[in-house]
Amino acid sequence: MEDTNQKEYPIHVRTDFFDVTLQGIDLEVQCTEQHLVSIYKFFYHAGFRLLEIEGRLEVYRKVDGVIYAESVDSMTKYLFDKLKELELLDEALIIDVWDYFEDSDCIRKDLLMEHCLHPKQDGIKDRHDYLLKFDSIYRANFIHETMLRFFRKNHFAQVGDMAGLYNSESPLFFKELKDGQYLVFLHYNRHGACVSMTGYDCWLSKKEPDEAKNNSFDSSAHTEVKLDFDPLQDMALLDRYL
Questions:
Q1: Which of 165, 202, 216, 237 has the most CB within a 10 Å radius?
Q2: Distance CA 169, CA 237 (A)
Q3: What mean pLDDT comes out for the span 163-186?
Q4: Element (DSSP H or E) covering residue 72
Q5: Which residues, other chains included, contact 51 with Cβ-Cβ below 8 Å and sequence gap of 6+?
């Protein structure tokens, strides 16, 4: 006679990232500190980092030198998407374990994650690149400082706003070129009112800006080089002039 009361033994699945015990319809998942260390090593190898930036712990990913904003959720998704791609575990099991990770909040911004994902090198540069890309005020201030260094290095002169296009406090920076023309920058966003704009327009002018004459910016006497000039992207435009 067939024994209908045969005992059902649990199934154990052990991985570097978690352990699973399955018995009937009951699923038990364990994610220990050692599992988390392995997970964070996996994340670090994939380019994920964690830095304190402006008082906040920010997750980002660095791929081929480019910074991308990430989150705990996007990191967790990356992990389980990779596990699905490997096809070493049943996909339904992976989804159940993923649900456990989300419900238990075991992957989170804490001291362990900060220790494991803190950049071993380039931390200062990463912080700068992150803020430059995702903090518009930081970017606007950095662009302004970069332009002022550029003007000093290349011996630009400065006068008040001759254009009358924005306000009387907008200064002009200019330099005479070999052909007698002038390379002119109008700093129209002096107080950073619009952080989405660089604050500098670049022109080629036949007339020297002269504050004493208070002349207007004559459209027949200048040529646009680049509006909203970005020194991080547009410096090559000036190679032919300097």
A1: 202
A2: 27
A3: 78
A4: helix 72-86
A5: 57, 58, 60, 118, 119, 123, 126, 127, 130
